[in-house]
């Protein structure tokens, strides 16, 4: 009975028979399971085999590897379209299909020959804050590389990355921005954004940075004339160019985390940082901070080990040398304080 309901295609597309059989068997448990698995499989192959519909997948298309799964996972995260839980479910659906095809044979050969890499496919943390964090230097370098190596819209992508760092906005919110969403004040420019959950968010940027953004204005109401897909593709290329190891789990969201960490370093104010991140709870914000900034050795313990007057007693050249080796975050904070003195 089951076999009679399977759609038979020509030999080149023979694999579709088995995918249909797999989905119908899942449907015996519940229609919802079959529908969920079908969508997960289609979404996966739309990324891995973008020029093919699921009906035209061949046996060769089923020979996947760890890189294919990494690509799907990272692009799905960068798209901000799905939660980590949903991405995990889609990956599970594809693994289940491949495991099923591994057990089946055509002409005496397993349809899928190798699934040994399955154990290396890491499940995503089901809170979306488990992604790696970038340093300020890395984000600035990422923007620079995008500006000189991207094939299209180099300048827009350059400022897109910097804007994400400066405002801590999510990618989806930035893509929605129109020029009318900027409101100039006396000393800053207010950005009227709509972030996750349709929450209004009002970050500020400097007038100097805003004036640089105006160089992108070309009569179009959209500030950043990009798509989520083009940003995802850019991030894939930038990860490779910057040789980030997979263990760091760098995604576009990592830029937002860098911006939030920088805000905390500048202000040392949990409430201000929570506001900058547009969070309701500081426990959420803590998950965004670099581990070096939160939960590190305490001030009393540190001061017991250090001479807090040491900077006053070293030669000027030594002090400058040490300052030059500090993280860019701290150099920015230092220069901000110097600017206050000079005004």
UniProtKB/TrEMBL annotation:
Domain spans labelled Core-binding (CB): 13-102
Keyword hit for DNA-binding: yes
Residue intervals of the Tyr recombinase domain: 129-302
Alphabetical UniProt keywords: DNA recombination, DNA-binding
InterPro entries in the cross-refs: CB (IPR044068), DNA_brk_join_enz (IPR011010), Integrase-like_cat_sf (IPR013762), Integrase_catalytic (IPR002104), Integrase_recombinase_N (IPR010998), Tyrosine_recombinase_XerCD (IPR050090)
GO MF, any single term: DNA binding
Top-level taxon of origin: Bacteria
CDD domains: DNA_BRE_C
GO BP: any one term: DNA integration
Homology family: Belongs to the 'phage' integrase family.
Name under which the protein is recorded: Site-specific integrase
Lineage of origin: Bacteria, Bacillati, Bacillota, Bacilli, Bacillales
